């Protein structure tokens, strides 16, 4: 089954304690991205990756890091989480063919609370 | 990417067609219209997309006006499971989905 898997689904952590949210896709997609969703602000892109070792900032990258060492994995790293990073996070992937439409698949979400 | 305007909410009776409008008056010639939906706090789900022609799949139909400045998503027989936030998105590249506030659709029994 084609899917994007995020872990953990729920996480409560303390300010300043480094954490990683993992994202893995089994569709051999080139393009992956991270979004955060906050009430009243909708879904906003944090980072994206067009292929292995190619990443770039989205709209709200501050406080986040990503890496793309393998095609299937795209972890989101919070080096020093702060309460304003409490949010619902989604990972997404798509084929990424420039100029052609491709459907984006989303993970089930990670609800992060930073206290 | 062109901006879109959707009504904030709408109700629909179960079993009836739900027609969701979207205005995108600044759309460019190479920008597609996409629809996604988000049920509760799950990840967004792709519904349908189109460029100029009307499109239909097993989930919905997409009607795009001739001038491409607006479109309508049609859920032909709405069920309670179609209650969700529906997002209309226009874009040219594949690299980013810019989600607006969407339309909260409530299907009532």
Notable features of this structure?
heterodimer; A: 115 residues; mainly beta; four-stranded antiparallel β-sheet; 0% helix; 50% strand; globular; B: 109 residues; five-stranded mixed β-sheet; 9 strands
Q: Which percent range fits the helix content of chain B?
A: under 10%
Uncertain stretches of chain A: none
Largest sheet of chain A: 7 strands, mixed
- What global shape of chain B is seen? globular
- The fraction of residues in strands of chain A falls at over 45%
The amount of helix of chain A comes to under 10%
Structural class of chain B: mainly beta
Question: What's the total count of β strands of chain B?
Answer: 9
Please provide the ordered H/E string of secondary-structure elements of chain B. EEEEEEEEE
The SS-based structural class of chain A is mainly beta
Count interface residues per chain for the largest interface.
A-B, 32 and 20 residues
Could you walk me through the main structural features you see in this protein, from its secondary elements to its overall organization?
The complex is a heterodimer of chains A (115) and B (109). The model of chain A has no long low-confidence stretch (mean pLDDT 93). In chain A, the strands form 2 sheets. In chain A, strands 2, 4, 5, 6, 9, 10 and 11 form a 7-stranded mixed β-sheet that branches. In chain A, a hairpin with a 3-residue loop joins strand 4 (31-38) and strand 5. Chain A contains no helices and 11 strands. In chain A, 36% of the residues are buried. By secondary structure, chain A is mainly β. Chain B has strands spanning 9-13, 18-23, 32-38, 45-50, 55-56, 61-64, 70-75, 84-91, 103-108. In chain B, the strands form 2 sheets. A 5-stranded mixed β-sheet of chain B has the order 1-9-8-3-4, with no helix packed on it. Chain B has a 4-stranded antiparallel β-sheet with strand order 2-7-6-5, with no helix packed on it. Chain B is globular. Chain B starts with 8 loop residues before the first strand and ends with a strand. The interface between A and B is medium-sized, with 32 and 20 residues.
């Amino acid at each position: 089954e084609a899917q994007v898997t995020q872990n953990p689904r729920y996480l409560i952590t303390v300010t300043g304690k480094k954490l990683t949210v993992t994202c893995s896709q089994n569709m051999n997609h080139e393009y992956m991205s991270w979004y955060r969703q906050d009430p009243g602000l909708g879904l906003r892109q944090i980072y994206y990756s067009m292929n292995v070792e190619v990443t770039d900032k989205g709209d709200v990258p501050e406080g986040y890091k990503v890496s793309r060492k393998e095609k299937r994995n795209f972890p989101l790293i919070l080096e020093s989480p702060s309460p304003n990073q409490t949010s619902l996070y989604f990972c997404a992937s798509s084929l990424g063919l420039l100029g052609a439409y491709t459907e984006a698949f989303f993970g089930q979400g990670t609800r992060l609370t930073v206290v | 990417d062109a901006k879109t305007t959707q009504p904030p909410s709408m109700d629909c009776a179960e079993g009836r067609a739900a027609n969701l409008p979207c205005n995108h008056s600044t759309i460019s010639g190479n920008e597609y219209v996409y629809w996604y939906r988000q049920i509760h706090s799950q990840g967004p789900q792709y519904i349908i997309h189109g460029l100029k022609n009307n499109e239909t799949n097993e989930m919905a139909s997409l009607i795009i006006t001739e001038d491409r400045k607006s479109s309508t998503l049609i859920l032909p027989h709405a069920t309670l499971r179609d209650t969700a936030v529906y997002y209309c998105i226009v874009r040219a590249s594949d690299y980013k989905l810019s989600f607006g506030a969407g339309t909260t659709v409530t299907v009532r029994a």
